[in-house]
């Protein structure tokens, strides 16, 4: 499936050109920096009312101020949200009022050098990148359903969920018997890869469950971008090794923030994708599926692993996630 002539070099501004989002309410997690802030900027420029969430409210307010200065009259607000804290997510979802037309699950952390856990004992990358977004997405289900019926969502073909994954998902599927690395040795990039596979599976299952309600969900890989805080937890030596491996193995050319946000923006707004759900996109196009048995799957520069789109895995992860966030309420 092609989405116009967009590709690797497309910027977020180019991706949204000609699209009118007036009346659309959008929520972007991790919107206080990097590609989240860029995604929020172009959505607001197109007329959407955008809520940016993050842990650093001062940074978020600075982003909102820049957007307001660049686009007078733009609707932008900033709200604090800690995705690794179930109570923070529950409180945010409970306070949400009215419809939601577009949810961009953008926030994330990467490659914590040592195993860390949240207050419920869940490995922190899985807790933040997946469980937090799962709780947020399911907590806003009613708002998304309401949004799908409104005229404002007509340009989107209903409500949309965009789940940011990564090429890193090719490193690991879900270890359903030990998602928190309680028994197996902790590896920073395997833990990151598991959480990024979970991001794809969330889109697959949400799309299956909610399509009849006018809600679609898709996952994206933004590309490799240096100008973000995603790798802030990685020691300098480890980050240098990863970058050197990327350049040697994949001949990586790093994207700008504008190019990195483009795939999210295409999947969030392109009329070519009305009704499309449960897919994975990179470089603004639907990705090739790497089938079971693909040799050296982690070495592939592109594509989506079969296990990340597998319906049985998606359903199993959804049910496990319900159990895990349900236990946090006890």
Structure description:
The chain is of the alpha/beta class and 330 residues long. It has a single domain, classed as Rossmann fold (3-Layer(aba) Sandwich), CATH 3.40.50. It is built from eleven helices and ten strands. The strands form two sheets. An eight-stranded mixed beta sheet has the order 3-2-1-4-5-6-7-8, with helices on both faces. Strands 9-10 form a two-stranded parallel sheet. Helix 2 links the parallel strand 1 (25-29) and strand 2 (49-54). 52% of the residues are buried. Residues 243-251 have low confidence and may be disordered.
Find the count of extended strands (DSSP E, 2+ residues).
10
- What form results from the Cα inertia axes? globular
**Total number of helices:** 11
What count of structural domains?
Answer: 1
Low-pLDDT residue spans: 243-251
Beta-strand percentage range: 5-15%
Q: Give the C-alpha Rg.
A: 18 Å
| Multimerization state | single chain
Q: Which CATH-level-2 architecture? A: 3-Layer(aba) Sandwich
- Strand and helix order: HEHEHEHEHHEHEHHEEEEHH
First and last CA, distance:
44 Å
Main sheet: strand order: 3-2-1-4-5-6-7-8
- Could you say what the CATH topology is called? Rossmann fold
Q: Give the full name of the CATH homologous superfamily.
A: NAD(P)-binding Rossmann-like Domain
> Main β-sheet, in a few words?
8 strands, mixed
Q: Which CATH C-level class is it?
A: Alpha Beta
Instruction: Determine the structural class based on helices, strands and strand pairing.
Output: alpha/beta
Mean pLDDT: 92
Helix percentage range: 40-55%
């Amino acid at each position: 499936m092609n989405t116009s002539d967009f590709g690797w070099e497309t910027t977020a501004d180019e991706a949204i050109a000609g699209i009118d989002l007036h009346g659309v309410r959008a929520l972007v997690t991790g919107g206080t920096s990097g590609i989240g802030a860029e995604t929020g900027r172009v959505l607001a420029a197109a007329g959407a009312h955008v809520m940016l969430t993050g842990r650093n409210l001062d940074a978020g307010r600075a982003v909102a101020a820049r957007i307001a200065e660049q686009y007078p009259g733009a609707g932008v607000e900033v709200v604090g949200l800690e995705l690794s804290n179930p109570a923070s997510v529950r409180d945010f979802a409970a306070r949400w009022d009215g419809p939601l037309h577009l949810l961009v699950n953008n926030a994330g952390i990467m490659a914590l050098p040592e195993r860390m856990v949240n207050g419920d004992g869940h490995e922190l990358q899985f807790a933040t990148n997946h469980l937090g977004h799962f709780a947020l997405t399911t907590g806003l289900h009613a708002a998304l359903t309401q949004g799908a019926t409104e005229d404002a969502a007509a340009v989107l073909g209903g409500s949309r969920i965009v789940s940011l994954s990564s090429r890193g998902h090719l490193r690991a599927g879900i270890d359903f018997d030990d998602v928190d690395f309680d028994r197996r040795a902790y590896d920073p990039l395997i833990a990151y890869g598991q959480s990024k596979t979970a991001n794809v599976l969330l889109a697959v299952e949400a799309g299956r469950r909610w399509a009849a309600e006018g809600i679609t969900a898709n996952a994206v890989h933004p590309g490799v971008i240096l100008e973000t805080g995603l790798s802030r937890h990685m020691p300098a030596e480890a980050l240098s090794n990863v970058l050197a491996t990327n350049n040697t193995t994949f001949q990586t050319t790093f994207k700008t923030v504008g190019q990195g946000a483009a795939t999210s923006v295409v999947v969030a707004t392109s009329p070519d994708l009305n009704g499309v759900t449960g897919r994975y996109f990179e470089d603004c196009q639907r990705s090739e599926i790497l089938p079971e048995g693909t040799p050296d799957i982690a070495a592939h520069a592109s594509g989506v692993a079969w296990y990340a789109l597998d319906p049985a895995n998606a359903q199993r992860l959804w049910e496990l996630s319900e159990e895990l966030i349900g236990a946090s309420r006890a």
